Amino acid sequence: MKNILLSAAALALLAGAASADTIRLGTEGAYPPYNYIDDNGEVAGFERVLGDELCARAELECEWVTNDWDSIIPNLLSGNYDAIIAGMSITDARKEKIDFSQNYTPPSYSSYAAMSDGVDLEGGVIAAQASTIQSQHVVDTGATLLEFPSFEDSLAAMLAGEADAVFADKDTLVPVVEEGTAMWVGEDVALSIGIGMGFRKSDPELRAKFDTAIASMKEDGTLNEMILEYLGEDSPVFE
């Protein structure tokens, strides 16, 4: 009987350890205001605050992992982290590889910024971050795509005159335009149905926990408050 009790206790301890497993959230850390590395070397921005709140609501212990954008999906699939929260737009092509949560931002615009008016957006050289919906759109327009591994590199290329314009999520370009470094050119383009968290297809239970947490933030209005605070007053919110 003593051995049976000991075995039951051991199993309980193991179950408790399993339930306390830390969930690793993968982000880029180079896509402000969604995510970036602050002066203390910590992940910061809209998605850091959002991710921490979602983990609290889901009653999960979470830690943050940074990963280059161009390998962020492969490293999720290989197990380097458990979910992606990195300004990733929900697309059919990505759905072939991973599952998404419901969107935590509404459909938003992509925009062009340049140093001056009169840029030929269909025949010029346009900088964009590689493996994004924006880089694919540049190709589709017939313009010459100048790809970079990060948003900051693509912006720097435009500012240095290597590209006629940069094309990115509008939210990321707002600070650049507002400070007078660049100006809006062309029309805003609707490319996305929103941004969501990415999960391995083998982790439906984890995805469901975050889905429930996102839904609760939509329902009580805290997600809209967070969007306006971190992404700007002109950023779309949920109805």
Structure explained in plain terms:
The chain contains nine helices and 13 strands. By secondary structure, the protein is an alpha/beta fold. It folds into two domains: 19-106 and 194-231, Periplasmic binding protein-like II (D-Maltodextrin-Binding Protein, domain 2); 109-190, D-Maltodextrin-Binding Protein, domain 2 (3-Layer(aba) Sandwich), CATH 3.40.190.10. Strand 2 and strand 3 form a beta hairpin. Mean pLDDT is 92; it is low at 1-20.
Characterize the overall form.
Answer: globular
Q: How many β-strands, per DSSP? A: 13
Broad CATH class of the largest domain: Alpha Beta
Give the topology string: H per helix, E per strand. HEEEEHEHEHEEEHEHEHEEHH
Mean pLDDT: 92
Helix/strand structural class: alpha/beta
Q: Percent range for helical residues?
A: 25-40%
- Helix run count: 9
List the helices and strands and how they pair.
Blueprint: H1 2-19, E1 23-27, E2 30-31, E3 35-37, E4 43-44, H2 46-57, E5 62-66, H3 72-77, E6 83-84, H4 92-95, E7 99-100, E8 109-114, E9 125-129, H5 133-141, E10 144-148, H6 151-159, E11 165-169, H7 170-178, E12 183-190, E13 198-199, H8 204-220, H9 222-231
Parallel strand pairs: 1-5, 1-6, 9-10, 9-11
Antiparallel strand pairs: 2-3, 3-4, 7-13, 8-11, 8-12
